[in-house]
Amino acid sequence: MNETQKLLLVLLISIEIAFTQSVYLNLLLILISIIILIISKSSIKSFVRLILVCILPTIGSFTSFYFFGTGEAVQRIHFASVMTTRVVAYVFMGAAFMANMILYKLLRSLEQNVKMSATFVYGILGALNFIPKIIKAIRTIRAVGLMRGEVLYFWSPKLYFKAITQALVWSNNLAMAMTSHGFEEGERRSYHEQFPTKLSGWIIILVIMLFIQYCLFVAKLW
Amino acid sequence: MEQVEISSRSKSKWSLREVILMALIGIAFGVIYFIMDPVYTALDAVLVPLGLHQYTIAITIGPWMMAAPLSSYLLRRVGAGLIGELLGATGEALLGGYWGVATLISGFIQGIGSELGFTLTGYKNWKTGLILSTFTGTVMTFVWSLFHDGYLQFGFGMLFGLFIVRWISIAFFAGVLVYWIVNLLEKSKLLKMEQ
Q1: Where does this polypeptide localize (chain A) (predicted)?
Q2: Half-sphere exposure of B21 (CA within 13 A, CB side)
Q3: pLDDT at residue B100 in the model
Q4: Would the CB atoms of A63 and B51 count as touching at under 8 Å?
Q5: I need a surface site. Which of A57, A145, B66, B107 has the fewest CB within 10 A?
Q6: Is residue A113 part of a domain?
Q7: Cβ within 8 Å of residue A153, ≥6 positions away
Q8: What counts of helices (H) and strands (E) characterise chain A?
Q9: Which pLDDT score is estimated for A207?
């Protein structure tokens, strides 16, 4: 499977489970995601982090649908369980996808497979390399504020203003740098590395999606 | 500091600089939301035992919706909200990691919702568009939540409360705060804005 197909599969499954209600299917998806994570050698630390992230939303989903849902107690328990497992399924599927995806390959395969514009592909790639600098910049902005006795909260317009100002300068510089290195907007590009979609990938997507439809509509899993 | 011309001559095409700008802003907003995280967790810890977890989501949805109206309001172009929010969501997804793909889907819904507000004014009056976008954004994300977050199971009272709280959050962050931020940018004369 190439990266575009992986993304497509995760998107399809995510949308499907948003509209259907099956606890067992969600549990199955979680299990498969965990197996993928183990195969791709995720660290214990990242597992602990994922579980910690899930705790509040899962308990929260369960209590709110159990207390405030409509219908009989049995129905409420079923729906509360659906929502609880759905949250966990989203988190673990997302993690499994991220663990097996190489970002530049995903962006480039999107450029080649779905004709995403090169301006977006390379613009996003360029911006992503700024993540550590942005984290540092926001820390600096807040520290500078503190030195003046001003606490910048997440609702302070000034914090956003300063961050955007920084982004304006950087985006200008980066775009200039890319242009001076020969990047031309709207020009046809040739590809050194090809990322074609594979037939086997399409078959895997088809089989998985058919299996999910079977679970939901034929076997009608609880 | 030198002035940066924000709106390029082309009205429909995104320039490289604008793509980078919106992606950077998306990432920066993502970093800022992490400041919000302890607040979110503390609030959620109180509301979860009461079965009101959905209210935590409704209260804190506003900040996630800021990229779209900001993008529309800054770039003043058809589709800027949707694409801006998608770029923002990409930045956020890669920063946060685990919500990954789910962030892209909600980014798409939020982007369309916010964009609709500007569409309703025919892309002529951007201020009215901003006000309308808080409403269309709320409706759109609420309809998505009816299915995705299972809101259909709730009674009318709970739904009404959730809608109002969500609207207040979006109106403040994706409306008032965005307006203030753009005002600051205009005053700073960093941008050559087209009036």
Answers
A1: Membrane
A2: 22
A3: 63
A4: yes
A5: A145
A6: no
A7: A159, B35
A8: 9, 0
A9: 93
Which residues of chain B make contact with A161, given a CB cutoff of 8 A?
181, 184-185, 188
- For the record, the structure tokens of A213 come out as 């439809």
Q: Does A187 fall in a domain?
A: no
Q: Does A172 touch chain B (CB under 8 A)?
A: yes
Q: Spell out which residues of chain A touch residue B46, defining contact as CB-CB under 8 Å.
A: none
Q: What domain range includes position B127?
A: 14-188
ipTM value: 0.84
From residue B136, give the alpha-carbon distance in Å to each of B28, B117, B162, B171: 25, 6, 15, 11
Interface size A-B, in CB pairs within 8 Å, comes to 198
Residues of B in contact with A14 (CB under 8 A): 101-102, 105
Same domain, A7 and A85: yes
Both A48 and A124 in one domain: the answer is no
Residue type, A86: R
> Other CB atoms closer than 10 Å to residue B147's CB: what's the count?
13
Split into its structural domains, chain B has a count of: 1
Binary contact (A171, B21; C-beta < 8 A): yes
Q: Is residue A186 included in any domain, yes or no?
A: no
Quickly tell me which residue has 């009404």 as its tokens.
B160
Lowest-confidence range among A198-212, B79-93, B109-123, B158-172?
Answer: B79-93
Is residue B7 predicted with pLDDT exceeding 70? no
Please indicate, yes or no, whether residues A102 and A172 belong to a single structural domain of this protein.
Answer: no
The pLDDT, as a whole number, for residue B195 is: 45
CA-nearest residue to B157 within chain A is A68
Task: Determine the distance in angstroms separating the CA of B118 from the nearest CA of chain A, rounded to an integer.
Answer: 22
A162-207 pLDDT per residue, tens: 988 888 899 999 999 999 998 888 778 888 888 888 899 899 999 9
Interface test with chain A among B2, B13, B19, by most A beta carbons within 10 Å: B19
- Considering the domain boundaries, does residue B18 fall inside one? yes
Cβ atoms within 10 Å of A186's Cβ, excluding its own: 10
Residues A137, A36, single domain; the answer is no
Give A61→chain B minimum CA distance, Å: 6
Quick check: B17 and A69 CB within 8 A? no
- Count: domains in chain A: 2
Q: What residue of B is the nearest CA neighbor of A183?
A: B16
Tokens standing for A130? 């700024």
**Residues A139, A214 share a domain:** no
In a domain, B2, yes or no: no
> Is A138 close to B31, i.e. CB distance below 8 A?
yes
Domain with A86 in it? 3-107+195-218
Supply B189's token pair: 């004369």
